[in-house]
Design a protein that fits this description.
alpha+beta, six-stranded antiparallel beta sheet, two-stranded antiparallel ribbon, 28% helix
Length: 272
């Protein structure tokens, strides 16, 4: 039974009320990013209420939720402190300049869990991105990737049915999608990728063990083959405390002055 002033979401207890959730998520982000170190004592409720422009009751609800979820310890007379956490896995890092080889390597060094898979009509934005006819069928698969037993990404992939016919649920549970595409005769040529930010909805929050509304990195990618046809459309949602994207830059000079450009760093060939 949910206690008064608390709501359940994503397997984690959340404080009721928008203001309490705002305080909760702000403090949780500072703890996850390491700006509030383990064992550090937080300011008192009165000071936090002043800092956030809310009431002490609002702050108390947020602190109680953080304590119940294991992020804080609260003891009368000793205040509120950040609770030491088990050693977190090393964050997964990808470099934009060497993206595709790294995807295969990450696929082999992390654990995958297939959440769902089905054939269905491509959503309008997917059909447009892949150059498909309206209503054309695609395989829609949802998976999580984990490292050290902790899920760090929620992936939704769309693959045209002409390619996905040879990809089973067992395949999706065992191999990186790029490997499966190549096994089905696809010659991957290039990809276009964009990165933004979003908030975790109920389904994604539950899959990643986060509270609803937690901040996530959002990555959209369209992969094309040697003929220019779209072969995969991906939407990836990533925990920012466990995943990062790097880009190497080189300082170059031309007739108009000096500026930064992406530096392509060769990777060793990944064993197949």
């Amino acid at each position: 039974m949910t206690e008064p002033g608390m709501q359940t979401g994503g397997g984690i207890r959340l404080p009721a009320g928008a203001k309490s959730r705002r305080v909760y998520l702000s403090l949780l982000e500072q703890i996850s990013a390491g700006r509030l170190e383990p064992s550090r004592k937080l300011p008192g409720e009165e000071q936090l209420a002043e800092d956030y422009g809310v009431s002490r009751v609002t702050v108390r609800r947020a602190l109680d939720a953080l304590a119940e979820n294991g992020f804080l310890s609260r003891r009368a007379g000793s205040g509120t402190r950040v609770r030491p956490r088990p050693s977190a896995p090393q964050p997964v890092t990808m470099d934009f300049s060497t993206l595709l080889p790294q995807l295969v390597e990450i696929g082999r060094s992390t654990e995958v869990r297939l959440l769902s898979s089905r054939m269905d009509a491509a959503p309008e934005h997917v059909a447009r991105a892949l150059g498909l006819a309206p209503g054309e069928a695609v395989q829609i698969a949802q998976r999580t990737r984990s490292i050290g037993g902790t899920a760090y990404s929620h992936l939704t992939t769309y693959v045209p049915s002409r390619i996905a016919a040879g990809i089973s649920d067992e395949d999706l549970s065992r191999e990186p999608l790029h490997v499966l595409l190549e096994r089905n005769g696809v010659q991957i040529a290039d990809a276009r990728q964009s990165v933004s930010a979003t908030l975790a909805g109920p389904e994604v929050a539950s899959a990643l063990g986060l509270p609803e509304g937690a901040a996530l990195l959002s990555l959209d990618r369209v992969v094309r083959d040697a003929t220019g046809r779209g072969v995969e459309c991906l939407t990836g949602l990533y925990r920012p405390d466990m995943f990062r994207l790097d880009m190497s830059l080189a300082r170059v000079e031309n007739g108009e002055g000096r500026h930064w450009e992406p530096a392509i760093t060769p990777l060793k060939e990944t064993p197949r």
